[in-house]
Amino acid sequence: MSFTERLAGLMARPGQDNVPRDDVPWHLKYGGRAVGIVGGFFAVLFGLYNCIGILLGDIGCLVGGILQILAGFVVLAIEAPFCFIFIDYVQQVAEKADQRPYWNRAALYCVIAIPPVILCLGLGSLFGCGLIFLTGMIYGMMALGKKGTREDMAAMASPNAMSPVQGVPSTDQHSTLMEDPDSVICGNAGSGGGGGLVR
Q: Which residues of 56-86 are buried (b: 16+ CB within 10 A; e: fewer)?
């Protein structure tokens, strides 16, 4: 594969999905990718900053910084493979990640963002890994899909809606509620007979 073919393949990738996902809003799709790219960059940057902790003898910050750098590289490799244009297998990994469901990517990002924060709690690890965790949350919202239409939600909330189990009609929600005692007290007070308080 020549350099120009590889470059053309990388530039065509962000706008098209290998698996069609029409139910995902465009602002979540591009927002998740943008937050992932920025988060990966800051995770690498602040991971290097956390590695300076070895000068103070803090081994936890060194290990946390290394894990944060690795997490940043993983996110950048999946979200922005054009940053690694000269590494052949990064494009293949990014294509495989795009073919997976969104919840896989959400779980991966949320899991790899937690250990650096546990090992070295500081602003650098909170900000860098926090952006990766935010990317995972955005992909989790994308995995949930669009919410139902107004008519669908109204139909499910109606008293005679069918329950999802065996098509049995659901019971009325108001049948288990009691009368509001405040309305009874206020009703007696307005009648003028014997005071408004019930003892």
A: eebeebbbbbbbbbbbbbbbbbbbbbbebee
Nearest-Å Rg of the Cα atoms of the chain is 27
How many other CB atoms are there within 10 angstroms of residue 180's CB atom? 9
The angle, 0 to 180 degrees and rounded to 10, between the axes of the packed helices 59-79 and 123-144 is 40
Distance linking the first and last C-alpha atoms of the chain:
88
Beta carbons of 133 and 110 less than 8 angstroms apart: yes
On the CB side of 55, how many CA atoms lie within 13 Å of its CA? 5
* Phi, psi for residue 83 in degrees, rounded to 5: -70, -20
- Span 1-52, pLDDT tens digits: 666 666 566 555 544 554 555 678 888 899 999 999 999 999 999 999 999 8
Predicted TM-score (pTM) of this structure: 0.70
Name the residue with tokens 């493979």.
81
- Whether the per-residue pLDDT at 187 is higher than 80: the answer is no
**Lookup: tokens for 40:** 């990966």
What's the rounded Cα separation, in Å, for the pair 65 and 22? 38
Single-letter amino acid, residue 115? P
Per-residue pLDDT band for 189 (boundaries 50, 70, 90) equals low
Distance CA 7, CA 152 (A): 45
